[in-house]
Every structure is written in C-alpha cells, then in structure tokens.
Amino acid sequence: MKKKLKSKKFKFIPVNKPLITKEDISYVNRCISKGWISSEGPEVKKFENNFSNFIGHKYAVAVSSGTAALEIAVKSLNLKKNDEIIIPNFTIISNAIAVLKENLNLRLIDCNLEDWNMDIDKIKAKITKKTKAIIATHIYNFPLRVDILKKICKKNNIILIEDAAEVVGQKLNNKLCGSFGDISIFSFYANKQITTGEGGMITTNNNKLYEHSKSLRNLCFGKKDRFNHEGIGWNYRMTNIQASLGVSQLKRIKLIVDKRHAVGKKYFEKLKDNPNIYIPEISRSYAKNIYWVIAIVITNKGLKIDAKTLMKKLLNYGIQARPFFWPMHKQKILKDKYIIDKKENYKNSEYISKYGLYLPSSLDIKNDEIEFICKTVNILLK
Ligand SMILES: Cc1ncc(COP(=O)(O)O)c(C=O)c1O
Fold first, then answer.
1. Which atom of ligand 1 is nearest to the CA of 189?
2. Per-residue pLDDT tens for 77-99?
3. Residue 94 CA, ligand 1 centroid: distance in Å
4. Pocket test for ligand 1, best of 187, 193, 196, 236 (most atoms within 8 A of CB)
C-alpha cells in the first residue's frame, strides 16, 4: 500500500497556511512606512468601521485576539459572582476561560453529531434564574442556529454572546453570522477566514457594551484624568500594522468564502462514499457549509483506528492533520469548575474528540493535493 501511495510530488501538505497577497503586503508596507506601527492611528479605526459595516452591527472594537474579545465581551456585561453562563462543551477553551476569569459559573451543553454545534434542545433544561448569558459558538462547518437561540434568549432575558471566530462571511438564512449576538466576537488568527496574524473583533449595537468594551481593551484610562483609571482592564489593543492587513483582507472576503466552500466541496465529493467516515454535506436549507476546516469523523470503531492513529499514518505520507477540540468536561484544568453539570454525560463530544480530525485546507491547496489526500484517507480507512 505504501508503494501505491508514496508520492515524490508532495513532500509535506500543511493543515493550513495563510494566503497573503501582493496587495496585502503593499498595503501593510504603506502603513509601516507612514509610522503607524502601534495602536494609535487610522488603520484600526478604518478596520473597525469596515468590519462593523460588513457585519451590520453599529459598533466594532478591534482587539489582540479572539480570546481577548471573549474576555472583554463577558466582562463588559457586569455580571455578579456565581451568575451562570451557558457554553458549548465541544469548543475552544477560550469560551470557558472568559467565564471563569470573571468568577462566573459554567454550564456545559453537549454537541450534536450532525454538525458538532451545541445541542439547542438541551439548553432550555439548563436555564435557571442565574443564567445571564449564552456563548453561542459556531463550530467548524455549519452555523449554530443562533436565529432559534436568539428567541430563547429574548424570552428568558439572557444575553447572547455570539462567537463567530471561525465563520466570518458565513450566512444563516441570508444574515451574516456574528450579526445575531447582543455582542459578538471574531478571530483573525492565521487560520481564520481573514487574518491579521493575531487579532480579534467585538461588535454590537449596544452603545453601553461598546463603550465598556473599548475602555476594557485599553486599561480603562480615565476620561477626565487619563492616568486615573476607571476600572481594571487589559492592554488587548490591536496594532495598525495588524489592522491594515485586516482592511486589505476584508476586501476579498467573498472570494475567500467562495474558495473555501469550493475546496470543501471537492473533499466532500471524494470522501462522501466512504462508509467509515462522516463528512458534513455541502449545504442545508438555512446555510452553506463554510468548511472552515475539512473535518471528518471516523464512524467505524471496528477499524480500531482513532483520530490520533490516523493522523500519524497520514503524516507518514506528508499530510498534516489536526485533532478535534478536547471537550470542556475532560479538561483537567476545569475539573472543579463546572460543578453543576458534573454528573452529566457528554457522550457526543467525547466520541467526536476521539474520532474527529481535520485535513489540509489552505486557500491555495491544489486539486492534485486534495486528490492525493482523499485517496490516502480512503485507503487507510477501508
Ligand atoms: C470558536 C473560537 N472562538 C475563539 C477562538 C479564539 O481565537 P484566538 O485564537 O484569536 O484567540 C477560536 C480560535 O481558534 C475559536 O475557534
């Protein structure tokens, strides 16, 4: 089998590499040559304006990462100790960290097996008088049904924090993801739809949350007396260099989203008939698959191959893959932190975290690379 697959053409196919164009570089160079290297300057404002216009929220605050955006968003709500925030169990640790840093209680919701988003049907049973917010995170491919969740939140007086870090440019019923939240967050890390190297954004229509977020990003400097600070904030500022890359990348967002979708479609066509794999479909009635990552789950446990084993085997052929998130209930560092839901089982997250992985999906990945990866996967999982 090895002989059949060994290919001299592809030494190494990385799971993701960013696509930085000549236009991006010359735009960033212009910013640096004008001396706009720190957070003070026009590019940050321009990126914020362009981004809020794009999402359809009134206000935007550019920050240093998606994680920083989450921490600020949660703190901006001024919740009380032991108030509860519901988050997905299958997600990035940043969701949990933002809650715990404010001494709030975590409530965890297991994911479904169709798109790995938090199971909305399980949320109602978790809502108590102490539930003040839900972090609604879109995971990997299809959007979480934030349209449905928004109604539940409204009815129960709960704030919707939409985590659209992975899905900039994706639409849910023709409305952009990130535009549903009372406050929304985005990430511009190198593997995201658009990148600023490191970076993030908060958007909202709420003036109070906007002013508070802006202040928290920048050490809560005093309005009257600058160095007499009004609160305990962070330096989570974005630089103009980063923002200029964001401005340039955002111009291409439609092309980027279309390209990613096209890559995902090619993978889907080549993997869909393998009975040992689950790969989400190309589109549904309410959304197109954004294929932020080319995620697959091994469904045949009889093969005795889990994600870790498959990743190792793929690497022998120069194909880099990554495992799915490690679910929150299995994080050692959170062991004593989600006390309320401790006895619950999270069997879906547990299953996909063991059997799920994602394959290379750089925007400039070549057709013959996709062909080679799918052929390899199909032979290894026969
Ligand atoms: C859903 C989600 N939220 C938040 C983040 C955090 O973003 P950052 O890496 O910019 O801190 C990530 C990172 O991948 C993510 O996937």
1. 10
2. 999 998 999 999 999 999 999 99
3. 7
4. 187
Q: Which of 309, 261, 238 is nearest to 51 (CA)?
A: 238
Confidence of residue 5 (pLDDT cuts 50, 70, 90): low
- pLDDT-derived band at 338 (thresholds 50, 70, 90) equals confident
Atom 1 of ligand 1: nearest residue by CA position: 165
The closest-lying atom of ligand 1 relative to the alpha carbon of residue 138 is: 1
Could you tell me if the CB of 191 is within 6 A of ligand 1?
no
With tokens 């932190």, the residue in question is 337
Q: Identify whether the C-beta of residue 130 lies closer than 8 Å to the C-beta of residue 156.
A: no
Q: Among positive and negative, which fits the CA dihedral 163, 169, 171, 175?
A: positive
Nearest partner of 203 among 224, 184, 188, judged by Cα: 184
Query: pLDDT (tens digit, 9 = 90+) per residue, 109-160?
Result: 999 999 999 999 999 999 999 999 999 999 999 999 999 999 999 999 999 9
Give the model's confidence band at 9: pLDDT under 50 very low, under 70 low, under 90 confident, else very high.
low
Q: Report the candidate in 94, 140, 151 with the shortest Cα–Cα distance to residue 118.
A: 140
Sequence-ordered alpha helix ranges (H) in 139-276: 146-156, 207-217, 240-250, 253-271
Burial 114-136 (b: 16+ CB within 10 A, else e): ebbbbbbebbeebbeeebbbbbb
94 Cβ below 6 A of ligand 1: yes
The verdict on the CB of residue 89 being under 6 Å from ligand 1 is: no
The enclosing H or E element of 129 equals: none
- Does the CB atom of residue 65 touch ligand 1 within 6 A? yes
User: Distance from the CA of 91 to the center of ligand 1, in angstroms?
Assistant: 9
